[in-house]
Design a protein that fits this description.
The protein is of the alpha/beta class. Helix content is 26%, strand content 20%. The structure holds fe (ii) ion (FE2).
Length: 304
Amino acid sequence: MQSVSPKTTAADITEAALRSFDGAPNPRIKLLLQAAVRHLHAFATETNLTANELIELAEILTAAGQISDASRHEFLLMSDVMGLTMVVDYNTNKKPDGAFESSVLGPFYRADAPWIELGGDICRQSDMGTPALISGRVLSIDGSPVRDAVLDIWQTPANGMYENTDPSQVDFNCRGRLRAADDGSYRFWTVKPVPYPIPKDGPAGLILNAAKRHNMRAAHVHVIVEAPGHEKVISELFVNGDPYLGSDAVFGVKNSLIANFVLHESADDAEKYGRPVPFFTANYDFVLVPGEAPEEVKFSAGRA
Ligand SMILES: [Fe+2]
């Protein structure tokens, strides 16, 4: 009597796919690919993913590639709205209590922003929003001032558009780098951040629409703080009272990153700060942890 071969199961296919990467010479690539196989196969089995859904997924990824360009990075945006970016950020940037916490870099960072003086303004055009003075100190976790700290800052003006996606703005508008004083103090002028929509006309929008989620980011100013002998922190400051703090489209808000923006309207304050009212002030101390940055994040958007 002829023996019947056992049927090939999904588990057999997963095992064969895993073994096919055993010979990968780079151990990190091997680990990533095998884990991707394990989790993707489990995803397909758990959801009973259909052939048509798999094809649709491939078409969505194709569309993400097609809509991306120098100033638009749809795959990063998809990662952001799925919360993946913040999970990666959390796993790779754990900080002790009291330290300045990290948040998403976002897809609009541009390296090599122009330097501004201490107390200078990162907005290079007028009428970009209500002015805001952000100041504070860069401190080490033990409370001592950090020397030679550099802040790299970027945000949208009141129209909610980053300059590299908006031809009406001058190059590097609302972006700047600033060196803190020897005592760790820093201050710069910008405009009060506003909530802005992330692009919804591509695959990231499909994801949001599927859940009837809004596409607003809570108002924020991006900041990277680095100093010799300390871990570099990529993060954002948020505005207390902002309506989207609890539902930020990319899950970037952490309680410790929320700052009070105080409105000034009096003639006395105009004289004290040397600036016409109204304007806001916000105070925030960046508390760094001794050490080195774990790994340089290599990303910089271009200008459309
Ligand atoms: Fe942003």
